Amino acid sequence: MLARVLEKISKGDTLVVVRIDRLARSLSHLLEVIERLEAKGAFFRSLHDPIDTASPQGKFTLQVLGAAAEFERALIRERTKAGLASARAKGRVGGNPGLRTKDPAALRKVRLARQDGYMERLNESAQEWVPHVRRLRPDMAWEDVLRIINGPLPHGRHWTQSRLLRAVKAYVRDGFLPAEVLGRAGRRETDDRLPAIVAAIKGADPEITLQAICDRLESMRERTPRGRTSWQPSSVRMLLERAEKLGLL
After folding, report:
1. CATH T-level assignment (fold) for domain 1-94
2. Which controlled-vocabulary keywords does the entry list (predicted)?
């Protein structure tokens, strides 16, 4: 639920909670959430706590909490180091005994746990990439699919091609995506590339405006048919008409 809320929040919005313990699992988690809000130009406010990042007092409180969180992390690190040193001095070695002896059952258990954790993280971001992959592959090259996926995302959350391919293979393996999406992309005429990209953006959001498509193309650093960097609605309309003639819409 929190991930969906953070995804929908935009610049100028304020996330309001009754108490901070209803939002975050820990102080460090709270600071992480607030950092994500600030990156979007949004604010945070707690009704029962003196935190309102839209005010100077709230920002000061947040800075104090950040310093306290860093101090707490430093104490935990020091205590952990001291505990490990004391255990080693007494001849005790930490860790999983099965892993130290390379027991196959223990190794398999760890591998499955890591795989489950990876799939949980993928599921949290599935709405960002699965619909595009399902709809565009293998008709469109991975490079263009990647640019379409990254278009609406903040820079810090951009996918790399290797990371996207790993995610797609995991979903294909578990039956969430058809194996056909991993097939070789068909060759497309150079003149058909831009209509295909515009059609993909329009297909993902049928209600999107021409200006919004222009903004998306500019965020993707896609050049116009004449090689310019600034897009106009008339150019997008022309490409949509061509895409319709090509059967891409």
Report:
1. Rossmann fold (3.40.50)
2. DNA integration, DNA recombination, DNA-binding, Receptor
